[in-house]
Amino acid sequence: LELDIEIIEFTSVFLNKIGLKKIIIDINSRELLEEYIKNNLNILEEETLFEIFRAIDKVPKKGRSGVLEEYEKKINNEVLEKAMTFAEMKGSYEEINRFIEPLKLRSWESINKVVVSLANRKVDNIRINLGIVRGLDYYSGIVFEAVDNESNSGSLVGGGRYNKLTETFGRKDMGATGAAGGIERIILAMKKYNIIKDKDTKNLTCIVYNSPEMVNMVERLASDLRKKNIPIDYDLLGRSFSKQINDAENKKAKNTIVINSEEVKSNGNIILINNIDKSEKRINIEKNFDDIINELIKIV
Question: Which end of the chain is more exposed for a tag (fewer CB within 10 A), N or C?
Answer without folding.
Answer: N
